[in-house]
Amino acid sequence: MSAVTSTRxxxxxxxHGEPTQDNFRTETIELPDLADGQVLLRTVYLSLDPYMRxxxxxxxxxxxxxxxxxxxxxxxxxxVVESRSLRIEPGAYVLGYTGWQSHAVADVxxxxxxxxxxxxxxxxxxxxxxxxxxxxxxxLKIGRPKPGETVVVAAAAGPVGSAxxxxxxxxxxxxxxxxxxxxxxxxxxxxxGFDAAIDHRxxxxxxxxxxxxxxxxxxYFENVGGPVTAAVLPLLNFFARIPVCGLVSQYNxxxxxEGPDRLPAFMGLVLTKSLTxxxxxxxxxxxxxxxxxxxDASKWLAEGRxxxxxxxxxxxxxxxxxxxxxxxxxNFGKLVVQVGPEQD
Length: 344
Ligand SMILES: NC(=O)c1ccc[n+]([C@@H]2O[C@H](COP(=O)([O-])OP(=O)(O)OC[C@H]3O[C@@H](n4cnc5c(N)ncnc54)[C@H](OP(=O)(O)O)[C@@H]3O)[C@@H](O)[C@H]2O)c1
Known about the structure:
- By secondary structure, the protein is of the alpha/beta class.
- It has two domains: 5-126 and 309-338, Quinone Oxidoreductase, Chain A, domain 1 (Alpha-Beta Complex), CATH 3.90.180; 130-286 and 293-300, Rossmann fold.
- The chain is 27% helix and 25% strand.
- The protein is built from nine helices and 15 strands.
- Strands 3, 4, 5, 6, 7, 14 and 15 form a seven-stranded mixed β-sheet that branches. A six-stranded parallel β-sheet has the order 10-9-8-11-12-13, sandwiched between helices.
- Helix 3 (159-170) links the parallel strand 8 (150-154) and strand 9 (174-179).
- It is globular and about 65 Å long.
- The site of NADP nicotinamide-adenine-dinucleotide phosphate has 32 residues, from helix 2, helix 3 and helix 6.
- Residues 20-337 form the Enoyl reductase (ER) domain.
- Residues 1-23 are annotated as: Disordered.
């Protein structure tokens, strides 16, 4: 039998600032034969997420960088083509971390079964997967919204932000979303039921935000940093909580922003307003909360209380462009690449 090949996107060079097509290279490799306990996978969906920008840098972080020449990392939903494990049969669907490639050999222990009858396969990468869990854990463990409080979240039309706002509403809070452009803001208000949605690109963004939170802000779910955070800070209430989830406006920066050092004023605010500012990586809560999340999110999804939107890009070759665009808001909903058909 001829060897199985995989088409894959590797990191060709490290970006300086915004990534470009030149930082990626597509190549085809032969996959090794399966060892006991391994499976051959055919990728169906690849998740594109902002954290991947950090992995392209040669910098110390909570996870090691992708080495130049290595396949880009990423969550995937795949179908098992061949199995050398009694635990999993050909035809089954699995959630894995096999990256930007058409096929992969993986240890069965690194995979989780995905039931295609429970929900559409791609939701395992979005509303029922890592981004949904991030919203759930960060909001409920750190944000702790109470009924009647005001929760503000940016990147609100994305998978994390849209779940944050809706879960805040489920818990009786007011949800105010910040997003780029009128279409995303209308979606937040009209389809997801946010109480208000503000376009961060509007010239009077700070004034509009102030008007949208007449009782101040009790929870600011931090996804973006930069000018959005600067507009939020003066509106925080005493004892406000800030789950620091992401800082996507800063991922492509190559130097510190100009202007006076803002740290002393920020620390003064933390002190005088008794703020709780707590960063987190979703994986720290998996053991404690993944069961609760699976129960609640599936129920809310089935009841129509947790809605979601996907932005599906067709073909692995489009992954670099789609990823670059996501870092400045071209995606509308959870960005996934359809690498292969659901049914072979
Ligand atoms: N801590 C964790 O464990 C964890 C896990 C998952 C995700 N995250 C973080 O959560 C955040 C959201 O992730 P996601 O997967 O839901 O991404 P996403 O919302 O699908 O994509 C990122 C969005 O950020 C917005 N954005 C980009 N530049 C911006 C800027 N300068 N100012 C304001 N908004 C900007 C864009 O939306 P607009 O068009 O609305 O501007 C863009 O669509 C990211 O910061 C990510 O790194 C953290």
